[in-house]
Sequence to fold (125 residues):
Amino acid sequence: MAKVEYADAIKTVSGALTKINKKSQHAADQKMVLATHRVAATTNPACSRLYLRGLSAVTRTTPVTADEQAQRTRFATVSRMVQARKQDLTKIAADLAAFNAQKDNPNGKKTMRSYLWMVCDAELG
Fold:
């Protein structure tokens, strides 16, 4: 069994030391090395761990429901509406004025994009 020892100055190590290049044609053969090292609250000296993970494709086991399909369609529609509204020169000035008027309110949207999402979602009904 391998043992990992860290320098005394290292208190925590957490995360991927190497990652899988998902765009590579050899992605299925690659391994991700994950390391964790925590100063344990107990007297247990085994507080370092190394994990090897392969590329795992998660497949859905249930079919897409009608409600999920409706949500996806609505999201795509609102997204297209936002993109079109950002390009529409006739609405930019009015949208900017309305955004600035509401952004300092307690429930106001803080970014122009989130404001446009709210407006386009309300237009859709």
The CA atoms of residues 49 and 68 lie 39 Å apart.
